[in-house]
Amino acid sequence: MELVRSHILVCAGTGCSSSGSEKIIASLEEHLQAVHLEKEVRVIKTGCFGLCALGPIVVVYPEGSFYSRVTPSDAEEIVKEHILKGRVVRRLLYQETVQGNEIKSLNETGFYKKQLRIALRNCGVINPEIIDEYIAFDGYQALSRALTEQTPGEIIETIKKSGLRGRGGGGFPTGLKWEFAFKQPPGQKYVCCNADEGDPGAFMDRSILEGDPHSVIEAMAVAGYCIGANQGYIYVRAEYPIAVERLKIAIAQAKEYGLLGEHIFGSDFSFDLEIRLGAGAFVCGEETALMTSIEGHRGEPRPRPPFPAVKGLFGRPTILNNVETYANISWILNNGAEAFRAIGTERSAGTKVFALGGKIVNTGLVEIPMGTTMREVVEEIGGGCPNGKAFKAAQTGGPSGGCIPASMIDTPIEYDTLTAIGSMMGSGGMIIMDEDNCMVDIAKYFLDFTVDESCGKCTPCRIGTKRLYQILEKITSGRGTMEDLDLMEELCYHIKGSSLCGLGQTAPNPVLSTLRHFRHEYEAHVRDRKCPAHVCKALMRYNILENCRGCTACARVCPVSAISGKVKEVHVIDQDKCIKCGACLEKCKFSAIVKE
Ligand SMILES: Cc1cc2nc3c(=O)[nH]c(=O)nc-3n(C[C@H](O)[C@H](O)[C@H](O)COP(=O)(O)O)c2cc1C
Ligand code: SF4
Ligand code: SF4
Asked: Strand 231-237 and strand 272-278: pairing?
């Protein structure tokens, strides 16, 4: 590979792309050409760096200067000051790296200090559209060693020893899954990758595919070799156009290099890979529904057993793993099972990627060793809740998961501890809530999602979740009774116990976990007809206090003319007319309006 003086890395993940990183790349290239440095300095488009809240991100190497919120018009200054004169553009630096006159490395900042990147090791480092860059970072070494030096049994043993568990939600041991399929009689078998990623707020898998697609392709080929499959499918939702495009490029390049196709590395092993686009139904992430969808039918779950390892795609033995699970495979094979086991905890080895969102300063993608506490994630990595608000809860596992209350902030994040406290690891969505969130409203939000996404095949899920939603609506509109709380709990267990697939079996989790940790909030809605967080509109009112100066600002802004009063006299809100839009509160300069 050609040597150059400097590299300018520009994030081209979905977040940064949507805020203009393609234009930044074009502008950087244009200004480099203007000073005849286009051959000495290379602009590289990468996947996600993680700190999405500060995008678009540009990093200049060898210094490692981390520029945030860059615009195309900043490109000229970066070229003229940093590249030509060697002077860092301080105003663009991520402020946490600036300490007095010193500029610290990114790894010393709160956001990155506690992170460890295994699945994301190449994201933000290589250009995902150039296979040579992946190869330069040990890419396809694991596959070459597998095909030339190792037996399928040895590889499966390594994966089993590593303790890797599925990152798609269930946490099933990956090596064991592969062994089941390996033990099936020879014949047509398949390898599938679940890149459906339907959880609201989650974008871990999308970022891996956008930033390092070859890590998934290589691992799928290794899986194919292990179980004796010559065909693989990657099921990606069509709403991920950048991921799909980069996957297409990566598959074409792997074929061109002979890393996919016939007789890979001159061996007897042949493996081909195809992309299948999903239309974006949450239930299609469920493994049997996903395979039914690939077969060309409507994506509805099938009863298990038989499990896919025995009877999967087109009725043949199949392994299906999540994108992040695959992204760990080459690292394990290159570094050894012990190295992976040494990270994380006894029962949850390695790291987990989370999409950190909601009421948190540093929203983005984080990869942490298992066992990191929720406090470390919220306070150190996430930088706490914005505007000094108090942390109230973290929702993990998306609609299938639950809420971890502030009192349990020191809980280590690993499969079993999260399940024990009524939440779950899930695929990695982590939504932070502060004191302004109503937990009944949160439960309603997730249930609304599952009601919409239920495929309708079985009654407990189709009708039960709708009934649960109706009760929640009754409570948030101030018509709930204490009996409703008991009824809801009973219904939750009924839906969990009798639904056909994981969607229905886990749909009540957000209700159960909020009932468990925030029952007092439900009771306040029912007994006191109050929403403590002032979120549920029907239970909330705006009032004007005695210190009103009668400036009329509120009355002028009210869209429904609910405010009356004479100039310089205390105003009054007609509660029957008020639509609770909050415009008056925002307008009042004298803090005379309160939300109760
Ligand atoms: C309703 C539902 C949606 C799911 N969505 C996904 C998904 O988007 N991605 C994923 O990897 N697994 C998803 N799963 C879990 C898969 O069924 C399956 O367990 C997983 O893909 C297996 O891979 P792993 O062992 O590597 O985790 C979902 C499960 C259910 C019940
Ligand atoms: S549990 Fe829900 S999503 Fe799953 S099969 Fe039944 S109706 Fe469909
Ligand atoms: S909350 Fe909105 S509708 Fe109600 S009084 Fe204020 S401005 Fe008018």
From this structure: parallel
Using an 8 Å Cβ cutoff, are 476 and 523 in contact? no
Could you read off the pLDDT of 465-489 as tens digits, one per residue? Answer: 999 999 999 999 999 999 999 999 9
Q: Over the stretch 56-86, which tens digit does the pLDDT of each residue have? A: 999 999 989 999 999 999 999 999 999 999 9
**CB-based contacts of 445, cutoff 8 Å, min separation 6:** none
Radius of gyration over alpha carbons of the chain, in Å? 27
pLDDT score of 1 more than 80: no
What pLDDT sits at residue 2? 66
Asked if 223 and 332 count as a contact pair (C-beta separation under 8 A), the reply is no
Per residue in 278-295, pLDDT (tens digit) is: 998 999 999 999 999 999
Q: What are φ and ψ of residue 137, in 5° steps?
A: -105, 45
Nearest CA to ligand 2 atom 8: 455
Question: Rounded mean pLDDT of 577-588?
Answer: 95
Cβ of residue 593 lying under 6 Å from some atom of ligand 3: no
Contact 356, 430 (CB under 8 A): yes
Instruction: Starting at the earlier edge strand, list the strands of the sheet with 6-11.
Output: 41-46, 6-11, 58-61, 65-67
Distance from the alpha carbon of residue 250 to the mean position of ligand 1, in angstroms: 24
Q: How far apart, in whole angstroms, are the C-alpha atoms of residue 421 and residue 402? A: 9
Q: How far apart are CA 415 and CA 171, in angstroms?
A: 7
User: Is the separation of the CB atoms in 476 and 540 below 8 Å?
Assistant: no
Mean pLDDT of all residues in 571-590: 95
Instruction: Quote the CA–CA distance of 282 and 493 in Å, as a whole number.
Output: 22
β-sheet bridge partners, residue 48: none
The residue whose CB lies within 8 Å of the most ligand 1 atoms, and thus the one to mutate among 287, 324, 499, is 287
Does residue 195's CB lie within 6 angstroms of at least one atom of ligand 1?
no
Decide if 511 contacts 442 (C-beta within 8 A): no
Q: How does residue 243 score in pLDDT terms, banded at 50, 70 and 90?
A: very high
Q: With a 6 A CB cut-off, is 555 part of the ligand 3 pocket?
A: no
Instruction: Give the whole-angstrom CA distance, residue 83 versus residue 62.
Output: 11
Give pLDDT, residue 5: 87
For a ligand 2 pocket test, name from 465, 503, 505, 509 the mutation site with the most ligand atoms within 8 angstroms of its C-beta: 503
Listing DSSP states for 369-414 in one string gives ETT-BHHIIIIIIS--SGGGPPEEEEEESGGGSEEEEGGGTT-B-S
Q: What is the mean pLDDT of the chain?
A: 95
